[in-house]
Amino acid sequence: MDRKQHWEHVYASKAADSVSWFQPRAGMSLQLIHDTGLGKDAAIIDVGGGASNLVDALLAEGYSDLTVLDLSAAAIEVARQRLGAPAKAVQWVVADITRAEFSKDRFDLWHDRATFHFLTEPAERQAYIERLMHALRSGGHLILATFAEDGPEKCSGLPVMRYSPKALGMELGDAFELIRHKKEAHLTPSGAVQQFSYCCFRRT
């Protein structure tokens, strides 16, 4: 089973609010987005957003240029059905982020909670960063959340990478300046605690 088949199976076989990464409210992400000071017309992409309810909150707050990308069509369909008519205001993209194509300087803010840490091969991470560099404008913001150094070694049966803010910055390279970082103890629906590291960078 390849990665796409894996995630299609997950969302076809489990309720979206029962998976370990489910959040009733994407509070930390919203706080960091607000902290950037970007206007409601900012172009924002949620990479790996799938069934996440972050897009619901951003729509409710009046953000008007939203893109959600996910490898799983089933995950995106969960979000579209949940939103109903407002889903028409969102650009939905089913794609592998390491192969996705974007217009140059398309986004003001790139948000990713828990996609990057699934990229365990250096070539995959390089492909991700190349697309990030192409699509995020100079001066734009990157909010990247991964498992922290003391976080899980696997998620959904797949191996993951774990990062400190410093290690993540080294992975991204000199084109990104770390603005702030926060740690979050995420409580899963089953009651387990997972340590996440949230980092906000500015593209220099």
Overall 3D geometry?
globular
From the alpha-carbon coordinates, what is the Rg to the nearest angstrom? Answer: 16 Å
CATH superfamily membership: Vaccinia Virus protein VP39
Q: Which CATH architecture?
A: 3-Layer(aba) Sandwich
In total, how many beta strands?
9
Described by strand count, sense and barrel closure, the largest sheet is:
7 strands, mixed
Q: Cα distance, first to last residue?
A: 39 Å
CATH topology: Rossmann fold
**H-E order:** HHEHEHEEHEEEHEE
Low-confidence runs (pLDDT<50, min 5 residues)?
Answer: none
Reading off the top of the CATH hierarchy, the class is best stated as Alpha Beta
Content-based structural category? alpha/beta
> Order of strands in the sheet with the most strands?
3-2-1-4-5-9-8
> Treating each run of at least 4 consecutive H or I residues as one helix, how many helices?
6
Which percent range describes the beta-strand content? Answer: 25-35%
Tally of structural domains? 1
Helix fraction by DSSP (H/I, runs of at least 4) = 25-40%
**Mean pLDDT over the full residue set:** 95
Quick overview:
By secondary structure, the protein is of the alpha/beta class. It is 29% helix and 30% strand.
Fold blueprint:
Blueprint: H1 3-13, H2 27-35, E1 43-47, H3 54-60, E2 65-70, H4 73-83, E3 90-94, E4 107-113, H5 122-135, E5 136-147, E6 154-155, E7 158-159, H6 165-172, E8 176-187, E9 193-203
Helix pairs in contact: 1-4
